[in-house]
Give the backbone structure.
Amino acid sequence: MTANGWIQIALFAVIIVAITAPLGGYMMRVFSGERTFLSPVLRPLERLIYALCGVREDDDQHWTVYAVAMLLFSLAGFVTLYAMQRLQNFLPFSQAVAPNQHLPPVGEHLSFNTAISFITNTNWQSYVPETTMTYFVQMAGLTVHNFVSAATGIALAVALVRGFARRSARGVGNFWVDLTRCTLYILLPLSVIVGLFFVWQGMPQNLHDYTVVTTLEGAKQTIAQGQVASQEVIKMLGTNGGGFFNANSAHPFENPNALTNFVQMILIFSLGAALTNFFGRMVGDQRQGWAIFAVMAVLWFAGTTTVYWAESQPNPAYAGLHVDQAATAQQAGGNMEGKEVRFGIANTALFATVTTDASCGAVNSMHDSFMPLGGMIPMINIQLGEIIFGGVGSGLYGMLLFVIVAMFVAGLMVGRTPEYLGKKLESKEVKMAMLAILVLPLSILGFTALAAVLPVGLSSLNNAGPHGYSEMLYAYTSATGNNGSAFAGINGNTPFYDSTLAGAMFIGRFLMIVPMMAVAGSLAAKKIVPASAGTFPTHGGLFVGLVVGVILIVGGLTYFPALALGPVVEHLAMLSHNLY
């Protein structure tokens, strides 16, 4: 751990804090239908979209209608993306691997897995993108879903926020309007600006055939290229994570230098952080949003510190080999296995924490090569529901579900009916919140247990013992959490894993959303009760500490036994050199 590393981490935190309020205010105007500086250009296009699609802008949907619209939209996206992959050899731009060569159709199991993956904002990739997907599928399929799946998540968060903000309302907004405004006014403009910046920094953006070159040794090498910058920016901004290249953000075409690496991390957190401020503005008290921000910031800092510390430590396996693992001006020190030298340990630890705090899944290193405790933190971040700034939308609504549980606990302690922001939290809201939270461990632990006892599950492991178990646990954690990153020592492109991981992605996205929307509808229909002397303040340090405590207790009780069999055992074994 170095002073230079801490300065870079601190600079990242300062920038996130600085952009939260301006971007949150802009989102407030967008989703409230107010005029923005982009309205003169985009408002006519917005109206045209509504006219062509038959959408009534002023139609306020009940939560069930809102949820059904979202589900039908996702179903249509799944069908079209599956068809694109199966028919990609008949579609335009089917050449990719080399000049005048065409890619075959994607297999049915892999097409099913990938279609589920991209409509759920997971972007799990059990394949090598540059040798599997054509340019057309990358552009019209994967990149498009990077936009709309992100916009869907934000729209759902907006609906829940309206539930807290509205009084005795029947509806929670209009899904089609929220989806359109998010895409037009937020995701597209930012993607165009930052995409051009990425091109300037050296990311390819073309439709050329792959380039075949002769190396200095006389061998032939195929250099993949394509529409990298346009996919890279929305993969980060929309917390999608699916890379154009198999190496993801460790590839120099996806992440050319330290500056693009830093900007990518900012993109991952930008909208999730801004949504906390949007929440405060919507409920009429920005302090409420900053309190939620503080909860997320505490958990982010704890995770980043732990990963940075773990990866900066010398590996005990080399203790008797007289290997110098200290950080000096000539070397990074610590555990550099699986990391890019151009980024170093500090930026690698920060990236790994940020991408798993959010549901992004982009990686600039191999998580499988992390020290046991360093790899455990990204796993925990996802298992908690990626509520630490989180995926676009999903982070906020996941955190608000924990807030409901925390206020229920506070109410039990003082003997009052729990309330939050003037809304009484009754049995329906608490039950739905707990149902949404418990869906995640049901999928993660259930599928991991299944894979751990079946030969088809064990046959995909490249490592035995606790690390092999960690690879399975991380895979289903990532899929259920709609993250998409992986411990890369597991072969996920088999019928068993393609099917079960797709099931985990579906459960983690939609079985959590439905009870969450029920909470939104129930809260919107409630009246706001004026605060009294006995009302628990929800904008101070006590509230922040209570929510952090509830999150850690629920997470610990749920996942510690599973983690103890994997990274914890591996760490203890490493210390005693039993694995080496």
The beta strands are 211-214, 220-223, 419-420, 423-424. Residues 22-284 form one domain.
